[in-house]
Amino acid sequence: MRTDRLVLRFVADEDIAPLTAYRNDPQVAALQDWDLPYSEEKARALVAKHEGLTDLVAGRGHQIAIVRDGQLVGDAYVGIDEHGGVADIGFSLIPAAQGQGIAHEATTALIDHVIERHGVHRITAELSTQNLASARLLERLGLTFESLTRQSFWWRGVWDDNLYYSMTADERRAWRDRPTGPPADVRLVPITDDNRWAYSRLRVHRSQERFVASVQDSYADAFFHGDRHGLPLIPELRGIEADGEPVGFVMYSEATPYLWRFLIDRRHQGRGTGRRALSQWIDGMRTNGHTEIETSWVEGKGSPAPFYRALGFEPTGEFDEGETLALLRLGPTPR
């Protein structure tokens, strides 16, 4: 199988040495499920299991070599259950190949292959709670968090917590066919009794939930708003609409003003919608005579800090309940 940059094939004899090497690399092996050290004999046995195979087979697991420019840069796992309906996936890459979209490209092709060619109706993946990079990749592939089981996975002599992600074939097709380009029209609309449930159903990725409160939680917080800098924190709620579809949510207080909550639904991230919506809102605050806007964020890998910084927010050096406080100073309206 070929993609734009890759060749995907069953592991073969020429892969034994590089496979053994990178499976013993601490950066690669850190959160993978194979035992260490990983011997050359194990690699030979793994390759031998694939001799004579020309396609995936129900009732067994398969190790797929990921080859770029003639070099083995990693491998993917595809296991199909005995009935041919459920496929489990996994992946690993050498450090030099990480961060370039290679795992996404390879796994996308394999998922679509097992769905469209083999009739698989469900895709699953398991991983450690510490494996944030893989969780984010699964989310970009369209899988969603399904469960967390505590101390349920025996891993190198200890019981580890186990995350479970999944999607159906129909969910994969819907994810693949979702709009990904910039919308023609982005607008802020009031949250009303007629649309509040549509906006409450918006969701971010599971890996983003530690940084972003849900719309439903924001609805609740709007009733118990308290104050900020001695002024009542009176909430204003707006939906973000892209080409007529609910895609995001903003909650703010104009008294300070304070950007309180902001999110874009997982299906619509990466389209530039959030930046356009917040730019409209910022222009509105400027038009209303405000000279600065305050917000806050949680730090950490995957934090929205780079997004807010790109809009001009700068940390003040202060913290509020563990969140970084930041300020955007508003100049005159651009001509």
Average of per-residue pLDDT values: 95
What share of residues is helical? 25-40%
Per CATH, the architecture of the largest domain is: 3-Layer(aba) Sandwich
CATH first level of the largest domain: Alpha Beta
Strand content: 25-35%
* Rg (CA only): 24 Å
Main sheet specs? 7 strands, mixed
Protein name: Putative acetyltransferase (Modular protein)
Domain N-acetyltransferase: 6-170, 186-331
Keywords: Transferase
GO cellular component, one term: cytoplasm
What is the secondary structure topology, with strand pairs?
Layout: E1 6-10, H1 16-23, H2 26-29, H3 40-48, E2 60-68, E3 71-80, E4 86-93, H4 102-116, E5 122-128, H5 132-141, E6 144-155, E7 158-168, H6 169-176, E8 186-190, H7 196-200, H8 215-223, E9 227-228, E10 231-232, E11 236-242, E12 245-253, E13 258-264, H9 273-287, E14 292-297, H10 305-311, E15 314-320, E16 323-329
Parallel strand pairs: 4-5
Antiparallel strand pairs: 1-2, 2-3, 3-4, 5-7, 6-7, 8-11, 9-10, 11-12, 12-13, 14-16, 15-16
What does this structure look like?
α4 packs across α5. This protein folds into two domains: 6-176, Aminopeptidase (3-Layer(aba) Sandwich), CATH 3.40.630.30; 186-329, Gcn5-related N-acetyltransferase (GNAT) (Aminopeptidase, 3-Layer(aba) Sandwich), CATH 3.40.630.30. The strands form four sheets. Strands 1-2-3-4-5-7-6 form a seven-stranded mixed beta sheet, sandwiched between helices. It is elongated and about 70 Å long. The protein has helices at residues 16-23, 26-29, 40-48, 102-116, 132-141, 169-176, 196-200, 215-223, 273-287, 305-311, and strands at residues 6-10, 60-68, 71-80, 86-93, 122-128, 144-155, 158-168, 186-190, 227-228, 231-232, 236-242, 245-253, 258-264, 292-297, 314-320, 323-329. The chain is α+β, with helices and mostly antiparallel strands and 335 residues long. It contains ten helices and 16 strands. It comes from Nostocoides australiense Ben110. Residues 6-170, 186-331 form the N-acetyltransferase domain.
